Amino acid sequence: MVDPARRPLPTPRRPLRPRLQYRLIRPCREARRAGEADGEAVYKQLCSSCHQMGIAGAPKLGDRSAWEARIAQGANVLYEHSIKGYTGTKGMMPAKGGNPALSDAKVQAAVDYMVENSR
Questions:
Q1: Quick one: which of 2, 13, 58, 114 is 20 to 30 A from 71 by CA?
Q2: How buried is 97 (Cβ within 10 angstroms: 0-12 exposed, 13-18 middle, 19+ buried)?
């Protein structure tokens, strides 16, 4: 008899499409973060200093054309660039907005807030 703890997890017959995958994991991610990080508060306290005026090439909050290509790269790329920092042809993003004490969850919550308000 097979030990249930060692039984392999079932795998889907076909891989999920990225959009469907995002729709499935997003509510779980949001529930996990509930109360842990308020994206709007983080944005107002830290991110708005650049993203409100477009300093250093930062896409302005609500500017759909500036965010479109970034959003198309996917949430994980946006999170990575925001957490680790990024320098591109249009500007740069300091790691964690220049605040190394900021948790990854708070950075991700701020990214989610900006994306939701820039679509």
A1: 13
A2: buried
